[in-house]
Every structure is written in structure tokens, then in C-alpha cells.
Amino acid sequence: MKILVVGNGGREHAMAWRLARSPRSEHVYVAPGNAGTALEDGVSNVDTDVGDIPGLIERARALAVDMTVIGPEAPLAAGIVDAFEAAGLVCLGPHRAAAELEASKAFAKAFFARHDIPGADSRTFDALAPAQAYIRERGAPLVIKADGLAAGKGVTIAHSVEDALAAAADMLDGAFGAAGERIVVEDFLTGEEASFIALVDGETVLPLASSQDHKARDAGDVGPNTGGMGAYSPAPVVTDAVHERILESVIRPTVQGLVAEGRGFKGFLYAGLMIDAEGEPRVLEFNVRLGDPETQPIFMRLASDPVTLFEAALTGRLDEQTVAWDPRPCLGVVLAAAGYPGGYERGHVIEGLIGADTDERKLFHAGTATDSEGRPVTAGGRVLCACALGTDITAAQKAAYDLADGVRWPGRFMRPDIGHRAVELQLHGEES
């Protein structure tokens, strides 16, 4: 089977790498891909941008691909799946109507209310004065979110009323462009975060392994919000009991609600969750695609054939599938460019990549490109994700940081404590 993966980040590198390892894969194309996908066996880059939907359809036809898989959210929100299907092409992902669950936080909040899905209390505003009045009335801490897509960065956790007022003003004044023309002001939830991703065929839900992302830039979960500084799988906070609660109170009602509203869902449904002290989940956000950087450790643990799973989702046969996982945990550390999530330089040559990968360690490229001399260079804020399997989470953490330490370019930085909750939990368990 020939497969086209749309996207150029670490998520798409992980998808392409894992799909190419399937015995059912003839070849994997990535549009536009990055310096890492260009080097994978059985993978080729295609020079077509993720936003060029007509061009992607033309490429899919010319390459005679059997299946297209969409990585990022922007083309999904733009209706790429609708366009591919209208052209008679097979494409895994939700239609535009279902993608609104991620494309508009205001829509998502109203959807929660209609379908009794647990989340934070919130209000939506398109003008500053009423937003400011609500913030003063509600008090801090609060979370201020741009309504639209902002590459994972349109969220401010405000620990004071002054910070909340400033964030609301910045967003409504154009800090995130059209994405911030409306904002959502919601209560700050306490607990432990987890990412829960399921493959959906329209009716049947097949959960993937749990994971935990680290959104804050700096150690100790402080600093500005990012697209994710690292992740690990599985997440110990998602116990068997919590897993069932998430399915019954969040995932299945969401799928059923989308179907009831004529927005039937196929593809990956991602719930970013806060798990409270009693093990009750509440939704922080929904995404309608695989997470980044969660995909990297999850796909390193995936033991089942992804081609078969994706095909089953497309044909409504997920009820016939089970999914197997490597029992070892996997941890991924994002290596970022100086200045991220703000402005950053591009074009620095990346050293230390050759010979770094093994069967248990993998450098997934995200913001990389190839220069005129064929060298890998930085081309984004999140540049690489160093992933490693380990006998336990402490071993996986050490192996991932050992791998990351071997990679260099001017200004490279990473959070030093990815996986700290799971490591602390393991340490306390060993002490008891």
C-alpha cells in the first residue's frame, strides 16, 4: 500500500517512520516532510505545502496513493478530508464540520454544554470591556484562550487578575491574528494533566496508549505555554478506573454528540484532560488529530500494524481490531530553538545526528530542513524530539536525555524535567 502523510513536524515523522515499518507498506510519501523524513527507508518527501489542498489532491492522484493521513489541524479545519473525498480519494481524518471541535474553542465549550461533557466553567467574549468585567468578577487564577487555531500557543494561564486582563487585551488586540478575535475565559482546573487519544471509525472508539505532555516551557511547569516540550507514555495517572471514566464521560459522549449533530467523526480524537484528586476527568481541550509530541513516544510503543488500524478506521471495522503495545515506557524530550515560543533564528546546522538512532532510541525531526550543502539545519521552534524506551520510566528518561545531549546547535535548549511526575511516583513506590 502507498500512503501519503500530510505535514512536516515531529508527529508526521513518527507516523511516516512507523507506517514505513509495516509489512503492508509499499512506500510512504510525506508532504512536505522535513530533513528527518527525507532520510527514512521507504519514505520520500513531496514538495507540496500542507495548505495547498488542490496541490495535495493532484499529488495523491499522480502518486496513486491508496490512503492519505492528515497530521496537522489547519488543513483539517480547512476541509481537506471533504475535498479529498469529493475527488474520490481515501483520506483519514475528520470532516471540516467535526474539525470545528478543535478549530473553535467557543464551539467546543458550547458542545460540552449540549452533551454534558465535563470541563471548566467559562465565558466567551469578542470585546474587551465585558471580558475585563468578567475577569475582575471571577478573580484569579484563570485561563485565557484564543478561540481559533494558534499552533498550541494561544493559551495563557494567569495567576493574577492583572495577568488575565493583559492576556485578554493582547489576544483581542491581535497577538494571535484572527485566532484571537474571540477569546474564552475559563476557570483554572487543578489536578494532573493527561492526553487521551482514540482512533474512531464513526462509531467504534479504539483507545491508544495514554500519555502526558508538558506544555510549559520551563522546569516545574512554569513559563510560557508552548506546543509541548516533551511527553511520555503511558501516563500513570490514567489508571484502569480512570481510563474507563474517560471513555464513558468524555470520549464516547463526544463521538455520539458529533454523530447526533451531523458531524460524524473518523480519525484521531484527542482529549487533553485534567484528572482531579478523586480520579475524575475534565476536558481542557479537544484536538481532532494526533498530538505532538505525544505521537512520538506512543508510536515507538505501538506493536500493532498501523496500516491495518488506519484502514479499519476508514472502513468502519475498528470493532474487529485490538491494539498491542510494547510494555516498556517511552519518553520524548523536545529540543527547541533559543527564543521559542517567541521569535527564534533558523538555519543553524544541527550536529550529532549521525548514528544516534538505535532500536530503542530515535530522534524525530520537527522543525528541520536541508540546506544547499545537504546538511540538516534548524527551521522551526521545536526542532527535534529525542525519544527512548526504557525498562521503567526512570531508565527511559535517562536514555532520552542521553540521546538529546549528543545533539548540538547554537542556542539549543530543552526542559530538564520531562517525566518528573512519573519518576517521582516510581521513586515513592520504591521507597514504600
Automatic annotation (TrEMBL):
EC number(s) reported in the record: 6.3.4.13
Lineage: Bacteria, Pseudomonadati, Pseudomonadota, Gammaproteobacteria, Chromatiales
Pfam family, one: GARS_C
Keywords: ATP-binding, Ligase, Magnesium, Manganese, Metal-binding, Nucleotide-binding, Purine biosynthesis
Residue stretches making up the ATP-grasp domain: 109-315
Enzyme class: ligase
Pathway(s) served: Purine metabolism; IMP biosynthesis via de novo pathway; N(1)-(5-phospho-D-ribosyl)glycinamide from 5-phospho-alpha-D-ribose 1-diphosphate: step 2/2
Name recorded for this polypeptide: Phosphoribosylamine--glycine ligase
Gene3D superfamilies referenced in this protein's UniProt entry, alphabetically: 3.40.50.20, ATP-grasp fold, A domain, ATP-grasp fold, B domain, Phosphoribosylglycinamide synthetase, C-terminal domain
Family: Belongs to the GARS family.
SUPFAM superfamilies reported for this sequence: Glutathione synthetase ATP-binding domain-like, PreATP-grasp domain, Rudiment single hybrid motif
Reaction catalysed by this enzyme: 5-phospho-beta-D-ribosylamine + glycine + ATP = N(1)-(5-phospho-beta-D-ribosyl)glycinamide + ADP + phosphate + H(+)
